Amino acid sequence: MAFIAMDWDSGQIHTILDNRRTYKLLGFFNCYSYEERCKVEFLVMDMNAAYDSVVKKAFPKAQIVIDRSHIV
Transposase IS204/IS1001/IS1096/IS1165 DDE domain location, by residue (predicted)? Predict the structure, then answer.
């Protein structure tokens, strides 16, 4: 499974990672400074429990929004 990061407003894809394991995602996001990661306000994601832990560690001020296609 892949991980896709995109800009919600523009729809532009920023990156596609070939792996969505927690350590890979944290390694990718930790390349950005803590200050930059604190500027992230919202993250839209599916209900994968691993994403929840990554978001809380990498983006401490972001609100999590569940992708509406994953809500039943």
Answer: 6-72
